[in-house]
């Protein structure tokens, strides 16, 4: 109401004010015709209705719902800010043009990069909280199937081992080795030079020894030359109570060790044992000593940790999976943390039931 | 029941060794060894059950490995190209959740 009084006062009063008001009015009307033109054009082109239907459709849309001008102007704030006039000779000297240009370019580039990063982050799918309804139905069916048995290569998984993927349950070697076999199957399909050993490999190597355990025959049976690989993945069981994993990274010349709990310095023995394995295997298969001099032992104490006393097997499997997918966990860090393990147990159930690893849209 | 050469009670046994049978040594991680004589065409879950019986273990917790590969229940010695005197590793189920 107050606004309306003001308007009337303006209209009846000062001729300068009246003039500028009519200018505003003209501009506003032009604006309106622009908007209505824009409103009709995309409608016609995008919807693609036949011309006869089009006018009917346009009519029914009631595009022309404009209000009378004074009604629309009501409530519009009257701009009061008047730019301060600074005289030309009082202004500070402008920096040289190329400096300004360079500065603007850098700023624009930074803005661009930041915008791109934000878009990419928004587009990057997150790890879901649960599997899809279809997958949940499969899980229910498989968990109730007492005759369940999955076989892939030489890995086999019984119904009782499958139950171990329920929450708060320890995983056993059948789950770990079935997962390893799925990783190997996918690597073969993708022609990735890597291999995941089974969980008995490290047990034999560390408790019996390379020669005594005849580990040379293991790679012979697999027709596997480990020195031609990018990565050799090794799931490890500690004291029949904890799962961890190690990766021999031939490309980066390092032995990586991943523990989802705080490591009570068991890694040193693992590093030593695996270095010994590389030397023995090289001597056996290539007939010469293996040069380990520029190899690093890699361990990051700040990797994601399990938030219970049951999830280490899931952690180990997922660590091996993302490594096998090509993710560099040292440089790019982990995609998941302890809170995602409930989902991964469900995903592993689906994967084992189908016999192949699922796509990971959240992965890189 | 004893070791080398002598037929075992539970495994598929033939008193006389011929082309169709093999002597297989089952070796545990602790170094203990048990010998079995098996038919080349016998499903090897029989061997697993016989071993489990011998050592008093649950067959469900026993893993037989030949050259590092798990022996599937319905595989035969023929399938795996086993030869006379070959060694089969026996390991027990491994579990883990925390330290």
TrEMBL record, chain A:
Protein name: Ubiquitin-like protease family profile domain-containing protein
InterPro entries: Papain-like_cys_pep_sf, Peptidase_C48_C
Keyword Protease found: yes
Source lineage: Eukaryota, Fungi, Dikarya, Basidiomycota, Agaricomycotina
Naturally occurring in which organism (per UniProt): Vanrija albida
Pfam families per the UniProt record, alphabetical: Peptidase_C48
Entry keyword set: Hydrolase, Protease, Thiol protease
Transmembrane portions of the chain: none
Sequence similarity: Belongs to the peptidase C48 family.
Domain (Ubiquitin-like protease family profile): residue spans on this chain: 155-323
Tree of life domain: Eukaryota
Keyword Protease: yes
TrEMBL record, chain B:
Any one Pfam family match given in the protein's UniProt record, by short name: Rad60-SLD
Residue intervals of the Ubiquitin-like domain: 22-97
InterPro entries linked to this entry: Rad60/SUMO-like_dom, Ubiquitin-like_dom, Ubiquitin-like_domsf
Protein species of origin: Vanrija albida
SUPFAM superfamilies, A to Z: Ubiquitin-like
SMART domains reported in the protein's UniProt record: UBQ
UniProt name for this protein: SUMO protein smt3
Higher taxonomy: Eukaryota, Fungi, Dikarya, Basidiomycota, Agaricomycotina
């Amino acid at each position: 109401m107050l606004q309306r009084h003001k308007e009337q006062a303006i209209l009846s009063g000062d001729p300068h004010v009246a003039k500028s008001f009519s200018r505003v009015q003209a501009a506003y009307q032009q604006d309106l015709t622009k908007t209505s033109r824009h409103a009709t054009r995309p409608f016609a082109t995008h919807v693609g209705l036949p011309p006869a239907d089009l006018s009917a459709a346009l009519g029914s849309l009631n595009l022309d719902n404009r209000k009378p001008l004074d009604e629309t102007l009501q409530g519009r704030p009257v701009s009061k800010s008047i730019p301060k006039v600074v005289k030309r000779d009082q202004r500070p000297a402008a920096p040289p043009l190329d400096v300004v240009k360079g500065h603007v370019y850098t700023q624009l580039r930074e803005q661009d990069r930041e915008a791109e990063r934000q878009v990419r982050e928004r587009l990057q799918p997150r790890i879901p909280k649960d599997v899809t309804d279809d997958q949940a139905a499969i899980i229910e069916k498989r968990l109730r199937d007492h005759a369940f048995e999955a076989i892939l290569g030489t890995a086999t998984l019984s119904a009782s081992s499958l139950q171990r993927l329920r929450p708060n349950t320890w995983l056993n070697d059948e789950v770990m080795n079935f997962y390893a076999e799925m990783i190997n199957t996918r690597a073969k399909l993708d022609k990735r030079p890597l291999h995941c050993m089974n969980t008995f490999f490290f047990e034999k190597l560390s408790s019996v020894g390379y020669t005594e355990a005849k580990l040379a025959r293991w790679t012979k049976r697999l027709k596997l030359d480990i020195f031609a690989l990018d990565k050799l993945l090794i799931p490890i069981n500690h004291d029949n109570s904890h799962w961890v994993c190690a990766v021999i990274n031939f490309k980066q010349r390092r032995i990586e060790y991943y523990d989802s709990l705080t490591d009570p310095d068991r890694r040193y023995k693992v590093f030593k044992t695996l270095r010994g394995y590389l030397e023995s295997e090289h001597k056996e298969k290539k007939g010469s000593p293996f040069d380990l001099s520029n190899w690093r032992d890699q361990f990051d104490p700040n990797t994601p940790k399990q938030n219970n006393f049951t999830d280490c097997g899931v952690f180990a499997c997922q660590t091996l999976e993302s490594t096998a997918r090509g993710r560099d966990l040292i440089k790019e860090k982990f995609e998941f943390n302890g809170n995602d393990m409930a989902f991964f147990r469900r995903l592993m159930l689906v994967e084992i039931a189908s016999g192949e690893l699922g796509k990971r849209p959240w992965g890189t | 029941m004893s070791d080398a050469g002598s037929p075992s009670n539970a495994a598929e046994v033939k008193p006389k060794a011929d082309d169709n049978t093999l002597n297989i040594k089952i070796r545990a991680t602790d170094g203990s060894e048990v010998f079995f004589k098996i038919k080349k065409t016998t499903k090897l879950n029989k061997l697993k059950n016989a071993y489990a019986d011998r050592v008093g273990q649950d067959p469900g917790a026993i893993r037989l490995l030949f050259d590092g590969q798990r022996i599937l229940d319905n595989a035969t010695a023929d399938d795996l190209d086993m030869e006379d005197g070959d060694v089969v590793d026996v390991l027990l189920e491994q579990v883990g959740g925390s330290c």
